[in-house]
Specification:
31% of the residues lie in helices and 13% in strands. It is an alpha/beta fold and 500 residues long. It has one domain. The radius of gyration is 25 Å and the shape is globular. Bound molecules: 2-acetamido-2-deoxy-beta-D-glucopyranose (6 copies).
Length: 500
């Protein structure tokens, strides 16, 4: 649709009518060229916001579409300057009560989350068309890009990307090797999109591109899982491991707050901000004492400044949005001073995400910051839920049969709709739900702690972790997909010239 300014001008030159005098012809042609060039200069050299203002808010969508469908020569995203990086206020440490002292706090009831098949299909076609998930281009175009999230797990003996037990920054709960998991087949799978190959993960290249920048994972413990994976994948390529460290020396990452791994040779950091709902948890005083409430209309203002100016942000939320973790929706959700006597969790989720989306649209500098949202990661509790003896510890093989997969979560359909309505920000949607659903074999299950007695072992069998992932493991694939998306759609140092 668009082509380079020079070829556009050449085309116009050819089309100037030939019946006038040479002078008129020259003048006419000249003015057309000047005006067209001016327009093109405007288009190509103004940041998104300016273009957006010019086109009354529709500019970004136009440009995104152009970029999705367009040829690989078009590079409208080469506008950020990675050297202009400012830092957040790192002193803002959070002292709120630790919400993650047992894995259960972060767990969910898988089947209840994904139920509601009746609604799952609503508007799905529309959503698919308009959402940029950096995998699928919109419908109806010949230059359809490969959907990175539509694929399968293939055997690969060169996996994993870092040796089990090699990385000291993996939470003990995720360190299945440390806790003696006997099988290791679950480590030897690689995600393979059906219509293309992922670029192999080059940690040195990733760090080079991240030089002078900051990537932040924001969300619940599943994003901590992904963050630790990234820290380890990158650390594996660094010769002198002493030059990779948490900036305040922390070795435990479960408390709410801010964590930052610095890669000294690359002047960059890989950070995690723990905020389970993204919006603000807000205790409220009542006659009867303090009541926990969740503000659906306000971002978590303690954590938002910790990531607002990062170069890359990867969000997630989802596992806490369940009936039982939100007081059954009774006297819990709040907007302003109004506490809903009762609100359905999907409704609350939609309101909170809408708050998130509008905050992103108004507070993120999209010329600098690239925003990702990672979708829901499936759980695999068999014979019960996380709190009623659900199990996955005998699983050593992925699911191969698609008909055994769970339906696409309704909450993710809601998320897609919210992202689709954003005005200023191109959010890259990492649609990893299905790929996680295949991997019933890769959870920590009983290998999340040591047990000394038979009684402890018995208890471990009854209280398994089938929602987080062993590391090395499945989140490594999410980070490979993040790398692929950055190479394909990234700005500045991330942009790769050759097509993916
Ligand atoms: C980005 O623009 C600069 C100059 O404006 C150019 O030198 C560089 O090659 C461009 N990078 C990419 C990836 O297109
Ligand atoms: C990885 O990236 C580095 C830095 O760009 C490069 O020197 C190296 O050749 C790459 N390795 C592979 C295997 O492509
Ligand atoms: C490190 O990166 C920051 C931006 O994050 C930059 O201001 C600073 O100059 C860089 N330092 C070096 C030594 O390159
Ligand atoms: C306070 O407790 C009383 C008695 O249990 C109850 O009737 C009332 O609704 C409570 N008020 C609030 C604001 O929770
Ligand atoms: C994400 O993947 C699911 C299948 O797991 C699909 O139904 C949904 O449409 C996808 N969303 C996008 C935006 O591609
Ligand atoms: C739809 C569904 O699966 N509902 C279940 C949610 O979880 C509770 C408690 O585990 C079950 O009793 C429901 O049947």
């Amino acid at each position: 649709m668009f082509c380079s300014p020079i070829s556009a001008v050449m085309v116009l030159r050819k089309q100037v009518p030939d019946k006038n005098t040479p002078l008129q012809r020259w003048r006419g042609g000249f003015f057309v060229i000047v005006i067209v060039s001016l327009l093109l200069v405007l288009l190509f050299h103004f940041p998104y916001q300016s273009i957006d203002a010019l086109f009354g808010g529709k500019g970004i969508q136009l440009i995104q579409k152009a970029n999705t469908f367009g040829s690989s020569t078009l590079n409208l995203q080469n506008q950020s300057d990675p050297s202009q990086v400012s830092r957040p206020n790192r002193d803002k440490s959070v002292t709120e009560k630790d919400k993650d002292d047992g894995f259960k706090d972060y767990d969910i009831k898988g089947s209840n989350f994904t139920s509601d098949e009746g609604n799952a299909g609503v508007d799905e076609a529309d959503v698919e068309e308009s959402i940029e998930d950096d995998g699928v281009s919109g419908g109806g175009d010949d230059h359809k890009e490969c959907d990175l999230y539509n694929g399968r797990w293939v055997r690969d003996q060169t996996m994993p990307l870092y040796p089990p037990g090699s990385c000291p920054y993996i939470d003990k709960d995720f360190d299945c090797h440390f806790h003696g998991r006997p099988d290791d087949d679950y480590l030897r799978w690689r995600w393979k999109p059906n219509d293309c190959d992922l670029p192999s993960f080059n940690a040195t290249d990733f760090l080079e591109r991240l030089r002078g920048q900051r990537i932040v994972f924001v969300g619940d413990s599943l994003n901590r899982n992904m963050w630790e994976s990234m820290v380890c994948m990158l650390r594996n390529s660094v010769g002198n491991k002493k030059k990779v460290y948490e900036i305040t020396g922390k070795k435990e990452f479960k408390k709410k707050g801010f964590y930052s791994f610095r890669y000294e040779d690359y002047n960059c950091t890989v950070d995690f901000v723990a905020t389970t709902f993204l919006v603000k948890e807000s205790p409220m005083e009542t006659k009867n004492g303090t009541m926990d409430t969740l503000r659906l209309d306000l971002m978590d203002d303690i954590t938002a400044p910790m990531y607002q100016d990062a170069d890359i942000i990867v969000f997630n939320t989802g596992h806490w949005w369940t009936h039982e973790k939100t007081s059954k929706g009774e006297n819990y959700y709040r907007e302003g001073n109004y506490v809903y006597p009762k609100l359905e969790v999907d409704d609350a989720f939609k309101r909170a995400l809408t708050t998130w989306a509008s905050w992103i649209d108004n507070n993120i500098d999209t010329t600098k910051t690239q925003v990702f949202f990672r979708s829901y990661s499936h759980t695999h509790f068999r014979g019960g839920q996380w709190n009623s003896g659900g199990k996955c510890h005998d699983e050593t093989k992925p699911i191969f049969e698609d008909s055994y997969l769970q339906p696409y979560p309704t909450k993710m359909t809601i998320l897609e709709q919210v992202i689709d309505q954003m005005k200023n920000t191109h959010v890259m949607f990492m649609n990893i739900s299905k790929l996680t659903d295949y991997r019933k074999d890769a959870h920590p299950s009983i290998y999340r702690k040591h047990y000394n007695t038979e009684a402890e072992k018995l208890y471990a069998v009854k209280s398994q972790d089938c929602s987080h992932w062993c590391l090395p493991g499945v989140p490594d694939a999410w980070n490979e997909l993040l790398y692929a998306s950055l190479l394909r759609r990234g700005k500045g140092s991330w942009r790769k010239q050759s097509s993916l």
